[in-house]
Amino acid sequence: MSIRDDAVNLIKQYIGVSVSSDRAKYIELLGPGEAKAMQDYFCNPKTSGCALVVRGLWRLLGLDDKRVNPNYVFGKAIVWLVQIARSKKAWVICKKGLCPEIGDFVLIGGDKFKDGGVEHVYTVTSCAADEDGFILTSVDGGQKDKSGQQAIFERRRRWVLRNGSYWDVSSQGSDPGANAVGGRRVMGWGNIEKIFG
Predict the structure, then answer these.
(1) Quick one: 197 exposed, middle or buried, by C-beta within 10 A (0-12, 13-18, 19+)?
(2) Per residue in 7-19, pLDDT tens?
(3) CA–CA distance from 127 to each of 98, 133, 185, 189 (Å)?
(4) Residue spans per domain, the chain
């Protein structure tokens, strides 16, 4: 099997896991080995765990990089993911005609006026072109379950092309900014084969 298949098979094992349904399994992905106070932070309903889920996936897949291992530093999850991808020459800037492959992580959003607001990352589990852009499926952390607790869910996404940029116009989801009017701009993604190459 390829690293892409391994990533998808592994992350799918966490679909539906939440702090309220299985805190131990949630922590197994996000922060084993972290101090209890940090694990509690990861489980806080106000914490967005999207990048922590990607970081945990890479750690479980065996990435040899201190940024995916304890001790986590507040506010560094997305920054570290992009740094890792760039350092491995795996960062792909989104442009017309390009689509991530399974296992890649995608960054959307940023500046609320230019990019649709809150940053969010997810792992791609499928991607196919259609007449308007792309249809993707992803596994996303930073979601909320019915009781308002941190959760990991699978999402169906649509990318549309506007003025030369792709926009993720998914309205489904509960991460902050998921229902941003007009969607969130796709900033780029990390090619998992190069990250683990």
Answers:
(1) exposed
(2) 999 999 999 999 9
(3) 11, 10, 17, 13
(4) 3-195
